[in-house]
Structure of Lipoprotein:
Amino acid sequence: MKKRFRIASLAVMAAMLGACASSPKSIDAAYVSPGTYKDYACDDILVERAAIEQRADALYGSLKKRATADKAKMAAGAVLFLPALLFLKGDGMKAQEFAELKGRYKALSFESERKQCGLDFLDIDKRRPSLKEARKAAADDI
């Protein structure tokens, strides 16, 4: 009987682990055609890059906070209280938006390079929002 309970518990935990929110670093970029930006001048690319970076930085902080909270709930549920696993949030619209922003950023980078704009595009996953931006993003979630 104990063996069946353990196996069932492990199966439930494995299923719930898939429901955990993803770290922003592990979210793949959605495909966005570089042709989307073919009519953009270098100045337009610069403005669009700033807008994407600002929104991506805000989402990064929010997604990281959600992933950390889900990991904590998963640990508590696995050790103390299995019903806590029912409150995992998982990935949602923000993760989809972040994937789209990553794709737009890559497409914009490609078009900037093609037009020889001379703009530096850091990998969006290597950008880190400032503490102030991260706190603002977290406060916006509440």
User: Anything to note?
Assistant: The longest helix spans residues 42-79.
